[in-house]
């Protein structure tokens, strides 16, 4: 799975009913973030935090979907623990992947994995720790892969989405550690002549290939 690939479509049971992924995305952006097993400590904190900041994603027209290698029945029990310990219960669908179908479809588990998911430990599914950002065109825009022992930084995912949406609308790129409102870089695909039309006020260019302008509105 690479950036620019079409995100594989699937139909699955979730905590909010049966969903077909591409239909569920519709004209929105989407995040699919995966977990090796229910009732795991780091994932518990992540699912709670995502529920807390869901309004920030909604403000950006981004839908959230979780996935864990267990049944949706297990997810419901886990949600109670998440709310008790994190203060927020998951308010987005969580996919049940007890047959490993989606984890294998996305290349997070080997194709030959089978059997009872309850007999597998979190370490057996340690590679199911990916974050995918998918655009309205159903193309993968970002892939993050984290180890089990490191909690994911979803504030960073919000920052990246701000960059992805800005750069999709305007022919710009964002520099290191960019935050919304800061200067951006004119994309290399834009000639100087084209840039003059877009930015008649000019730009800063410490190097000919590094053309810096205020963030377009």
Q: Summed up, what is this model?
A:
This protein is of the alpha+beta class and 217 residues long.
Characterize the structure shown.
By secondary structure, the protein is α+β, with helices and mostly antiparallel strands. It has 2 domains: 11-152, 3-Layer(aba) Sandwich (Glutaredoxin); 170-213, Antioxidant, Horf6, Chain A, domain2 (Antioxidant, Horf6, Chain A, domain 2, 2-Layer Sandwich), CATH 3.30.1020.10. The chain has helices at residues 21-25, 41-52, 54-59, 72-86, 101-105, 154-169, 192-198; strands at residues 11-14, 17-20, 29-35, 62-68, 94-96, 130-134, 140-145, 172-173, 184-186, 204-207, 210-213. The radius of gyration is 20 Å and the shape is elongated. The two termini are 33 Å apart. The model has no long low-confidence stretch (mean pLDDT 96).
Any idea of the CATH class of the largest domain?
Answer: Alpha Beta
CATH superfamily of the largest domain, called what? Answer: Glutaredoxin
Based on the coordinates given, report the CATH architecture of the largest domain.
Answer: 3-Layer(aba) Sandwich
Instruction: Please list the strands of the largest sheet in the order they lie side by side.
Output: 5-4-3-6-7
Q: Tell me roughly what share of residues is in helical segments.
A: 25-40%
Q: Rough shape?
A: elongated
What is Rg? 20 Å
Secondary-structure-based class equals alpha+beta
Low-confidence stretches: none
Largest sheet: 5 strands, mixed
Question: What is the H/E order?
Answer: EEHEHHEHEHEEHEEHEE
The fold-level CATH name of the largest domain is Glutaredoxin
């Amino acid at each position: 799975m690479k950036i620019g690939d079409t995100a594989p479509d699937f139909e699955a049971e979730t905590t909010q009913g049966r969903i077909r992924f591409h239909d569920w995305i519709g004209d929105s952006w989407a995040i699919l973030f995966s977990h090796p097993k229910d009732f795991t400590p780091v994932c518990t904190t992540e699912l709670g935090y995502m529920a807390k900041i869901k309004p920030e994603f909604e403000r950006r027209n981004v839908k959230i979907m979780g996935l864990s290698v267990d049944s949706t029945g297990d997810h419901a029990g886990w949600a109670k623990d998440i709310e008790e310990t994190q203060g927020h219960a998951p308010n987005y669908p969580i996919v049940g992947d007890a047959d490993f179908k989606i984890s294998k479809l996305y290349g997070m588990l080997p194709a030959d994995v089978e059997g009872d998911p309850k007999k597998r430990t979190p370490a057996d599914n340690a590679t199911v720790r990916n974050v995918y950002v998918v655009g309205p065109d159903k193309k993968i825009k970002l892939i993050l892969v984290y180890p089990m022992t490191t909690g994911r930084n979803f504030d960073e995912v919000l920052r990246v989405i701000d960059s992805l949406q800005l750069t999709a609308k305007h022919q710009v790129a964002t520099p290191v550690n960019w935050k919304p409102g800061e200067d951006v870089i004119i994309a290399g695909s834009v000639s100087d002549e084209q840039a003059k039309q877009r930015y008649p006020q000019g730009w800063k260019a410490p190097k000919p290939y590094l053309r810096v302008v205020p963030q377009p509105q």
